Amino acid sequence: MVQVVFRYCLHLPTHYIDELLIIEAVMMFMFGALNASIDESHIIARIFENFSNKRRYVTAIRFIAAASSFFVMSWLTYWAYEFFVYSLKRGRLSVILKIPTVIYESTVFICFLGMAFYSCLEAYKYFKMFRESKKGAEF
Length: 139
Fold this sequence. Notes:
Elements lengths: L1 H8 L5 H25 L15 H36 L11 H31 L7
């Protein structure tokens, strides 16, 4: 409705609003995902843990999940780095406001790097818990 009023009644362009919203949405989404990794409040489906209440089994499953997450995040970080380098070389600008796209495209690399780091810390935490757990101990 606002765009209709701006475009047809006031004869003002509204494309810059769309561009700003896309930039803001990308950055907020990526930093929100990084924050969830830091707090370990990301979405987790712990289905296999329901099959046993043994501490060693549960920590082994959590370690495998965190290590898998680390490897996937490392792979995504590598591709995000390649994209970041490509963005630096191209030096593209946004269509309407002429903002350098590397500003918000670098957010993907920075946040993936942080998520890979924190998933590595999480895997280390569960590995340490697994080593310290006794066989047969229950939660």
